[in-house]
Design a protein that fits this description.
Shape of chain A: elongated
Structural class of chain B: mainly alpha
Number of helices of chain B: 3
Radius of gyration of chain B: 17 Å
Strand content of chain A: 5-15%
Order of helices and strands of chain B: HHH
Number of helices of chain A: 24
Number of strands of chain B: 0
Oligomer: heterodimer
């Protein structure tokens, strides 16, 4: 027991370092789109006592309002559990939710250790299994992008642990626990439910015990009924909902934004050492007659590989989502590699094995840290203003009056413009270049014209300090509705366009005076940065690496 | 004889894994020190796996390792029979 505690303690220290170091280096609190969405939902439940509809609800995080909230059909138990956790915390829901997800990541690593211990009864092998799982890019990616799936991984590990206990003791209570866990999965993470149900059904059929053959059917039937009843109770037709979900998943899969990765890229995605050891372990496992849960592991591996590459058959179901489940069987089968390789070294196996373990921990760890750092830097940007941006706006607040208006632009890869109304004390005018994928009354120049939108965009646009409803553009009707909503404001948009791209024109200067524009915030590398650099009417008063602030000096 | 070959293969695997780990650690430290993160966030969304992850040296070492492991797998399975 004492040895277990020591190993788990070291394991958690390493995991905390891997998850925390990139955060420390990037200097940003790890806040991501989906954890913000959950936080938003948690806040909604707290204020209204029920799950929300996912529209127009803003969460305040660090003085920034973020418009993204799940509706009640999206992982409802995930939302409720997170609300339960947050109700014990006095800090902001966004921070609580992120910290709880990091905690679940640590629980997953510990769970892998405990399941591996059940399989191999060796501390160092269980430890290695857990390290490979904890540093797998599949798990780290889920931690940063879709942390809600962490619940799914944790529950799958709980199911595996119960399966092993059932195999050992033949006690029915473990089957009951599996059933309860599967029911939980139906409302907490449906994709995990699909993957584990398929593996469980095939496994139970394979052990051919008449008494337990009913189990897989109960599992599937109960989970489908539970999910269906929930969807029905929330006012939707379950069949419609499921078809819509499949359509949505396949539409995203077809998008160029989410390319399918060929099989030779899998080691880079799952982690090199995990892939090598896991593949070897899985193959040995396949050829071993009495190996525990062989059918379960291989059902999961083959199903996930099939779904990952389903695009070859013309189906697109966001294949990479299935690929990530592979880290579970691979990390739990990886120790077989060490058992076999130590056989080849004979009595002198201790040192080579120690070298491999230490090197694989170091290499996997640094790969994971790099991956997380990239993700923290890349993914926090769309949802949080950078330190540089905050400092610029603080400077602006110190050097302007509340009546001064600021003009700026936003676009799809720099959404900070949307935060300006919350950070700046005065009025703001934001030219929403982000939305215009089609020219309106005026033409765009250069790259600005070639904007294509993502179906998932939902950002608020501020025009003269007024927040317009964020739009989710999924269909042509949504697009028409969105464009028509700007009909009334074409003149204002035209004036903003003139001020932004033709500030020297006499017409533009009329508008600058009309709206009391005193400052213009310009992003480096955008066409307008050149335009403003060459005007005598605008004086550069603030400059950092990516932001410049110009002051309009020719105010009447 | 076969046992000896298996041991030599195991030593080669060990050497291959050391080289692979060395390359990954070097690339990782280089990235951290230089701040040259090329994948700009999530490679799945940016349609790029970073240069770090596409390193030909890493890919080739991995490939050689897989060949050595296949040989080891054959030895292991043969022994069982």
């Amino acid at each position: 027991m004492k040895k277990h505690v020591t190993y788990i303690f070291v394991l958690l220290l390493i995991s905390v370092a891997i998850a925390g170091l990139p955060n420390f280096v990037s200097g940003q609190f790890p806040v991501w789109k989906d954890s913000i969405a959950v936080a938003c939902s948690v806040k909604h439940i707290g204020e209204n006592g029920e799950l929300g509809l996912g529209d127009n609800f803003y969460i305040n995080f660090d003085n920034v309002n973020i418009p993204y909230c799940w509706d009640k059909n999206v992982y409802p138990l995930n939302q409720i559990y997170m609300y339960a956790f947050s109700s014990f915390s006095s800090i902001d829901p966004a921070m609580t939710v992120t910290l709880v997800y990091i905690l679940i990541y640590l629980l997953i690593v510990t769970a892998v250790y405990l399941v591996a211990w059940e399989l191999y009864n060796k501390h160092h092998l269980a430890f290695l299994s857990a390290i490979l799982a904890g540093t797998s890019l599949a798990l780290l990616r889920i931690l940063t992008i879709s942390p809600q799936q962490l619940f799914g991984f944790l529950l799958i590990l709980f199911i595996v642990w119960n399966l092993l206990q059932y195999k050992k003791t033949n006690q029915k209570k473990y089957l009951l626990l599996i059933l309860i866990t599967v029911l939980n999965l139906a409302l907490i993470h449906q994709l995990s439910l699909v993957v584990v149900s398929i593996a469980l059904v095939i496994y139970f059929i394979s052990i051919i015990k008449k008494k337990v053959l009913i189990i897989p059917f109960l599992l599937v039937a109960f989970s489908i009924i539970a999910f269906g009843l929930y969807i029905f109770s929330s006012g939707n037709n379950p069949l419609d909902y499921i078809l819509k979900t499949i359509y949505y998943a396949s539409t995203i899969g077809m998008s160029n934004l989410l390319p399918a990765h060929p099989i030779w890229e899998h080691p880079a995605i799952l982690g090199y050492f995990l892939s090598i050891f896991g593949l070897f372990g899985a193959l040995i496992n396949l050829f071993t007659k009495k190996s525990p849960l062989k059918v379960f592991w291989w059902s999961m591996i083959l199903f996930c590989l099939f779904m990952t590459h389903s695009y070859l058959l013309g189906f697109y179901f966001v294949g990479y989502r299935f690929l990530f489940f592979l880290f579970l069987p691979l990390s739990l089968l990886a120790p077989i590699f060490f058992v076999k390789i130590s056989g080849a070294f004979g009595k002198s196996a201790r040192y080579p094995i120690a070298i491999i373990i230490i090197l694989s921990i170091l290499a996997s760890g640094i790969h994971g840290v790099n991956f997380l750092l990239d993700n923290y830097n890349g993914l926090s940007k769309p949802v949080l203003p950078t330190k540089e941006y905050r400092e610029a706006i603080t400077w602006l607040n110190d050097h302007s009056n509340k009546t001064d208006t600021v003009l700026t632009t936003i676009r799809n890869d720099q959404k900070y413009g949307t935060f300006l109304p919350y950070l700046y004390n005065g009025n703001v005018m934001i030219f929403p270049t982000f939305y215009f994928h089609k020219p309106m009354e005026f033409e765009f120049r250069g790259d600005e014209n070639t904007y294509s939108y993502s179906g998932q965009s939902a950002n608020p646009t501020t025009v003269i300090g007024k927040l317009i409803k964020p739009y989710v553009i999924n269909t042509e009707d949504d697009e028409k509705e969105f464009i028509s909503s700007y009909e009334d404001q074409r003149q204002v948009l035209y004036e903003m366009f003139k001020m932004t791209y033709y500030p020297k024109d006499i017409e533009s200067q009329e508008y600058l005076d009309k709206y009391d524009i005193r400052f213009v915030i310009i992003w480096r590398g955008k066409p307008e940065s050149q335009i403003y650099a060459n005007t005598s009417e605008f004086k550069k008063v603030y400059q950092t690496e990516s932001i410049a602030i110009y002051q309009y000096t020719k105010l009447n | 004889m076969l046992q000896r070959l298996e041991k030599i293969n195991a030593i080669l695997i060990l050497a291959g894994l050391i080289v692979l780990a060395g390359l990954i650690i070097y690339a990782g430290v280089y990235n951290l020190v230089s701040g040259n993160h090329t994948s700009l966030g999530d490679p799945y969304y940016s349609n790029q796996i970073s240069v770090f992850e596409r390193s030909p040296a890493i890919t080739w070492t991995l490939f050689i390792n897989l060949i050595l492991l296949t040989i080891h797998l054959v030895f292991t399975l043969r022994k069982r029979k």
